[in-house]
Amino acid sequence: MTTPAFDVRPTTQATEANVRAEILANPGFGRYFTDHMVHVRWTKDDGWHSGELRPYGPLTLDPAASVLHYAQEIFEGIKAYRHADGSVWTFRPEKNAARFRDSARRLALPELDDETFIESLRTLVRQDIDWVPTPASEAEESSLYLRPFMIASEKFLGVKPSKEVDYYVIASPAAAYFKGGVKPVSIWLSSNYNRAAPGGTGFAKCGGNYAASLAAQQEAENHGCDQVAFLDAVENRWVEELGGMNLFFVYRDGRLVTPALTGTILEGVTRDSILQLGRDAGLTPEERPISIDEWREGVNSGEISEVFACGTAAVITPIGELVTEHERIGGGSEEGGRIGRQLRKQLLDLQYGRTEDPHGWLTRLA
Ligand SMILES: *Cc1c(COP(=O)(O)O)cnc(C)c1O
C-alpha cells in the first residue's frame, strides 16, 4: 500500500458527550478507549490492503490464530498532544514507524510503510478528535495514547511466519502518569531473570518481551519496589534498562550517560530525544556500557548526581533507590533530580507546543 487510503465507516453509536467528558476528567491510563479503530489487512498473496476506520470493538479471531500460540506480535506507543490553539500534534512518529519496521523484521512480520503508519494515526485522531484531552494547566499532562499493533492471524498450528496478518490502531485517553506530581521510584535489580539476550528480541517492541518481564516485575513488587531493572544476560554486570523504560545517569561534571544500544536494549524515542536535548543544554551525552559497579561507586562517591528512567508514557521518572538481594544503592544525591526535571519540562513544553521546535520533531495530526 503506497497511497494510504482508509475507508471511513464511523460508528452510529458514538459515546455521548457527557459520558466522554466524565471519562476525560479522570481517564487514568489504558482503561478507556475511543469510539473507533483503524485496521489494515495483509496477506502473503495480496500484501497490505483493505485499510479502514471502523467502530471500536472486539476482534473475531480463530482459536488457532498463530498469535495466540506463538506470540508473533509487535506494537508501538505514541501520544497525541493538544496544543493551546486546539490543534493536535504527535512527536517524532517517523521514529516509531521505523522502529515498527525493525520490530516487524525481527518477528518475521510484514513491514508497514511509514506513510501508512503515520496516516493511520492521523485517520484515527481526526475521527476521534473530541477524545484528545485539553490540559487545563501545564501540570495536567493529559494526552491521547495511541497503540498501533500487528498480529499473526492465520489459522494454523505450525511454527512458521503467518501468511495472514492484521494491523490495528486503538487510542486511549491518558492522564499524567504520576498523580500529584513526579515522585522518585524504587527499582528492583533482577538477579533471577534477564529481559533480553544477544541475538534475541530485546530491540524489538514485541509482546513476548513484556510477557517475559512479568515474573520479574512481580518479584520487584514482592520486595516493595515499583519497577524492575535488568542486567545483560552474558555477564550479569552491565545495566540495560527497565521493563519498559530506558535509563540515564547524570554526572556532576555534566556527563549524561545512557547504556549503548547493543541489540538487547529498546531504542526509545524519548531516550534519543533526551540525548539531543542534553547536548543542546551543554551536557555531554555518552552512549556506552555502564556497570552496576559504576552505578554503586558513582552514587557513593557523589560523582553520579541523578539517575532517571524515560519513556513515552511517563516521560522522565527520577529513580530514588536501586534494591538488590544484597544492598540498596541510591539514585544520586540530587534529591528528585534537577537535570531530569529540567529535561522533562523541556520535552513536555516542546510536545505541547509551548516552546520552539528547533529539531522539527512535531507532526500535525489534526
Ligand atoms: C517502549 C519502550 C521503551 C521506551 O521507548 P519510547 O519510544 O521512549 O517510549 C523503553 N524500553 C522498552 C523495553 C520499551 O518497550
Automatic annotation (TrEMBL):
Gene Ontology BP, a term: isoleucine biosynthetic process
Its keywords, alphabetically, are: Amino-acid biosynthesis, Aminotransferase, Branched-chain amino acid biosynthesis, Pyridoxal phosphate, Transferase
The N6-(pyridoxal phosphate)lysine modification is found at 205
Q: What is its EC number?
A: 2.6.1.42
Q: In which pathway does it act?
A: Amino-acid biosynthesis; L-isoleucine biosynthesis; L-isoleucine from 2-oxobutanoate: step 4/4; Amino-acid biosynthesis; L-leucine biosynthesis; L-leucine from 3-methyl-2-oxobutanoate: step 4/4; Amino-acid biosynthesis; L-valine biosynthesis; L-valine from pyruvate: step 4/4
Against InterPro entries, the record matches this protein to: Aminotrans_IV, Aminotrans_IV_CS, Aminotransferase-like, B_amino_transII, BCAT-like_C, BCAT-like_N, BCAT_family
The entry's function note states:
Acts on leucine, isoleucine and valine.
Q: What is this protein called?
A: Branched-chain-amino-acid aminotransferase
Which species does this protein come from? Kushneria sinocarnis
